[in-house]
Amino acid sequence: MMKPAQVSLSTPEKNDSIFQWYNNIMENESKYGTLFEPVITEIQIRLRISQLAEKMAAELQGKDILALSILKGAFMFTADLLRKLYDLGMNPDLDFIRAVSYGRSTESSDKIVLEVDKSIEIKGRSVLIIDDIVDTGRTLFHIKERLISLGADEVMSCVLLDKPSRRKVEFHPDWVGFEIPDLFVVGYGMDYAERYRYLPFITTVDRT
Question: Which of the residues 132, 135, 162, 191 is marked catalytic?
């Protein structure tokens, strides 16, 4: 298993144009909570995805991969990761599934609703689940069990963020971008009440 990068919570060096844009966002979105400065920058994300792609390409060489991106949070991570894998000579098939456990709340729910398109051919495939974050592990554990029941030969997982302190079930992703403490994070596909998905970096939000 690839060792995840550790996240430093120190304030990154400021770029005036980026932080002016960031300050404008905070003013316009203040009713959805107060954003803090980035804890993982756009550059850090790009570098880490390149490292992940190199490691994955080496380990998945020769396999017929079906990548399943979990909507909605993983869409940005999936796009950037698959482009890097393509640059390294891989051509995985791609489809999307939806697993709902948050809704408009900030706490993970025990109830998980999984939507899988019946047209997706799972049987006999090497399936790669791509997700934005794993905390309790319930969602990815449930998805893996479901895909196995649908006949997948093997089910692997790659997540951008891991919160091991939140784990409620025994689940370990095969590839992890960053290991983070128990923070509620937004940006780079992740949301708070459907806001902030568009941010190119990852930050926290004060909901008080």
Answer: 135
